[in-house]
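Q: Sequence in, structure out?
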Amino acid sequence: MKHVTLPVSPKTVHWGYFSKKVSPALTLRSGDRATIETLTHHANDDYERMIAGDAGAESVFQWTREHKAVARRGSGPVEGPFIRGAGEGIGVHLLTGPVAIEGAEPGDILEVRILDVRPRPSCSACHAGRCFGSNVAANWGFHYHDLIEEPKPREVITIFELDTSGEPYAKAVYNYVWAPQTDPDGIVHRTIDYPGVRVDHATIKKRENILARVKVPARLHFGTMGLAPSEADFVSSIPPSYTGGNIDDWRIGKGARMFYPVAVPGAYFSVGDPHAAQGDSELGGTAIETSLTGDFEFILHKNADLAGTSLEGLDHPMLESDQAWSFYGFTYPNYLAALGADAQTEIANHSSLDRAMRDAFRKLRRFLMTVHHLSEDEAISLLSVGADFGVTQVVDANWGVHGTIRKNIFRCD
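A: Exactly. Output:
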């Protein structure tokens, strides 16, 4: 076993997509561990607090008329003319990786153990050592066309500070309504439609003393984590799918073990979209987006060894913790295969919790019948009385429902 560190830099991140074509930033063997830095793509909502003085963050977010450190920001084209910028905003998350796993082949299962998660402190002279994040009530939020106060519509950014001195929690610092921002290439962004645009704080009005008596318990986790799919060379980071991705479940934090089906040689694991806290549904559009560093262990389960184990036939992400197993249902289990050549844009027209619930039910039913050897009638009874289904997210186009079954149900005297 070896343990290596993967820091953030323009050479170790890819922005807005999973890809089987990107050269690995790191290659490991089964059993190896890695400390991986991740950055929030919302850091420029408050440059002073979340980027200034941080050499790694500054190198990734550097963008002037003469130089853009990470040009492709999405799974779209990188040659203009552009409406929003290279990649055209189809995919938004900053991902560190890929990490290639030696010997991984389609049909295998990659187990990723999250050993620890830590916030990335501010390096700003004014805020050194403190940790910050951004929550956005955005145009892709579930609420956006159901506002009751003026102005309508509006996008609102709330900056939080994370207190880690004891039991960690987040407290709001201020918020502001998004105002049109002009990027270094001269493109005006009237809405939040392209990742990494720096907000000029001279153009916005801060509202302080908000959420004054509220402390949000921290749930440090990674919103986007998974493997490269096989169906396309560049796949948007927004919709989750059968190899994981933007699942946005706060349970994918310290102590979690995630299992992913390998779709391409090497597996090509990437992680990002780090969160300080999130509720089930992520209703407004984002969590508290912050920068985190995680310690990971990688275990490769070869297809030839899966027969008779709980991983046999697994063709979707699964979470295991000390307390429970969780399964993730989506509008389409594999939207890339189901919707064809235009799947990455077409999926947003099909978002459905009904379909996601049915997918989660089917995955959990299969688990109970194949792993715990229940009959279908037994499984359905247990799903009704002992399983918990919840809305994972309604903001990632391929909407999600998670089904959880607790382990203590099976510990009978």
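Residues 3-102+115-217 form one domain.
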